[in-house]
Amino acid sequence: MSLFAKLQQRQAEGRPIRIGLIGAGKFGSMYLAQIPRTPGVHLVGIADLSPDGARANLARVGWDLQRTQAASLDAAIKDGSTHIGEDWRALVTHPAIDVIVECTGHPIAAVDHCLEAFAHGKHVVNVTVEADAFCGPLLALKAQQAGVVYSLAFGDQPALICDLVDWARTCGFPVVAAGRGHKWLPHFNQSTPDTVWGNYGLTPEQAARGGLNPKMFNSFLDGSKPSIESSAVSNATGLGVPSNGLLYPPASVEDIPFVTRPISEGGVLERKGMVEVISSLEANGRKIPYDIRMGVWVTVEAETDYIKNCFEEYNAHTDPSGRYFTLYKRWHLIGLEVGMSVASVALRGEPTGVATGWNADVVATAKRDLQPGEMLDGEGGYTVWGKLLPAATSRKLGGVPLGLAHDIKLIRPVRQGQSLSWADVAIDTSTRAYQLRREMEAHFAAPLARAA
User: Fold this and answer.
1) Each residue of 397-418: b (16+ CB within 10 Å) or e?
2) CA-CA distance, 62 to 32, in Å (whole number)?
């Protein structure tokens, strides 16, 4: 039975999936816009540090605010309405809620939310991929041990890439490469919230109209978000990562199978079976026609002449050898697609992407020369960007994951372009996020030592 048919059945039976949403910002608002149009789901409660802001976003996306006046979660369950408040713990501990959608974008808080949800028997759809990038493999293990499902969020590019990889492997194709698109030039890794809109391609007025956060969007532009998302994909699929960071080869959609081949065959890959990000700009800044900037892709290989001939017979666009073919989605719809994850997790017990090992890491890397006493401001800020590295390389370096490089003090000078180590910073070791990261490092130490 399809997910939609299952949702309709739950609606007819009066047994909707009961959802708790933590964080009602831009991504959360996009999901909120779809909930009234989806059968078989009931948003019981929203926890947000600004309840008034959450209500404003609900009004923006077209909710009837009369349905958001429930005085408590129990009252919301009773009459089918939605409770709005600040207490996320009330959501994750309420026995009637089935799925928590973590949508804060705050990686340290997200770890707390996920762990508490697991402890109270809740499935989690984690939109905050920044948390997954630095401790997702152990979050997945903790969820498994608790008997619940932990999942990446469909609509965000990592889950869509995982879906394409699963399609390829299920059909019997070896995956040569997979990834997403991005608008990239090398100097973008020095971008700050002050320069983001011009480089990103939006006016300040457009950004203000959409309620867009310059620090968040700068994390897209400066390479941090592509690294974070590529790390999540690598850890979920087992695909490798480049030895010294993403390469961002420029290519049109048609050229993806040309560039996502091994170096020995004219492409850019160190080997087959890797993640990569395709740039929508040539090195000189020229925009590439028919780009994959907002999309996702997977390149597969025809291992036999028969399969290669099938590619030709069905007019599949391949590289010159006829053996490498790329399937793609040119767009992703962010929070508008999260309902796929909620339904899959609740109705099939299946994640839409989940870490299965620790293969990749995103290490905080200096945007400029930094001096002792400076405070790191994390993803999308003024001080560091995230560099994708093999997990074994990060472990050997003692790399500081970008997700923990928020509001911590530098204690040693760091040069522009240098990746930071634990010895460079003074960090609060009392947070669950830090402790989970260290636990993950210890858990995977032996396999990573062998990989190195």
Assistant:
1) eebbbbbbbbebebeeebeeee
2) 9
Identify the CA nearest to 28 among candidates 56, 57, 64, 69.
57
What is the dotted CATH code of the domain comprising 3-154+336-348?
3.40.50.720
Cα–chain-centroid distance for residue 308? Answer: 33
Give the Cα separation of 176 and 301 in Å (integer). 7
Within 8 A by CB and 6+ apart from 372, the residues are 410, 411, 412, 413
Q: Give whole-number Cα distances, 150 to 57, 64, 345, in Å.
A: 26, 31, 8
Burial zone of 287 (CB within 10 Å; 0-12 exposed, 13-18 middle, 19+ buried)? exposed
How far, in Å, CA of 325 to CA of 318, rounded?
5
Task: Give, in order, the Cα–Cα distances in Å from 32 to each of 26, 45, 66, 219.
Answer: 10, 11, 15, 24
Distances in Å between the Cα of 292 and the Cα atoms of 59, 159, 332, 338, 452 are: 33, 17, 10, 21, 33
What stretch of H or E contains 178?
strand 175-182
**Of how many residues is the chain composed?**
452
Contacting residues for 411 by C-beta, under 8 A, at least 6 apart = 372, 424, 425, 426
pLDDT tens-digit map of 288-344: 999 999 999 999 999 999 999 999 999 999 999 999 999 999 999 999 999 999 999
Quick check: 124 and 150 in contact, CB under 8 A? yes
Q: At what angle do helices 129-146 and 224-237 cross, to 10 degrees?
A: 30
Question: Do 233 and 162 touch, CB atoms closer than 8 A?
Answer: yes
Comparing CA positions, the residue from 353, 380, 87, 92 lying closest to residue 226 is: 380
- 3-154+336-348 and 360-451, same CATH topology: no
Name the strand (E) or helix (H) holding 45. Answer: strand 41-47
Is the pLDDT confidence value at 371 over 80? yes
Q: Which residue's structure tokens are 């457009």?
A: 206
Those residues with Cβ within 8 angstroms of residue 309's Cβ, 6 or more apart along the chain or in another chain: none
Per residue in 46-60, pLDDT tens? 999 999 999 999 999
Percent of the chain with pLDDT over 70: 99
CATH of 360-451, one of 3.40.190.10, 3.40.630.30, 2.40.240.20, 3.90.1210.10: 3.90.1210.10
Would you say the pTM of this structure is higher than 0.90? yes
Q: 13 to each of 10, 95, 96, 127, 286, how far by Cα in Å?
A: 5, 20, 16, 29, 55
pLDDT (0 to 100) of residue 216: 85
Q: Domain locations in the chain? A: 3-154+336-348, 158-184+223-331, 360-451
